[in-house]
Amino acid sequence: MGLWTDISVRILNVPQLQEIRKLELGGEVIPRSLLFNSFIEDTYLLIGLGDGHMISFNYDQSSGELSNKKYLLELLLYYYIPFK
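^ thats the sequence. predicted structure below, dont judge the formating
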């Protein structure tokens, strides 16, 4: 869940909605979209920000730990394909 009031992301356990992890993003740009996805053997948390940037983290499902923070705007620009 992305919060606009304190510019943070919270990972909740469903259906109890118990908070597992709170991530302070800092800055002034709000989180707009969140996605957990598995690529090969790793799980990632992808966070889309209001200014078009994206942040990714490796996510350990057993511990709830986030690691390996990366900003992905540069990578996304190379793979942009316009609609016709």
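The chain is about 5% helix and 50% strand.
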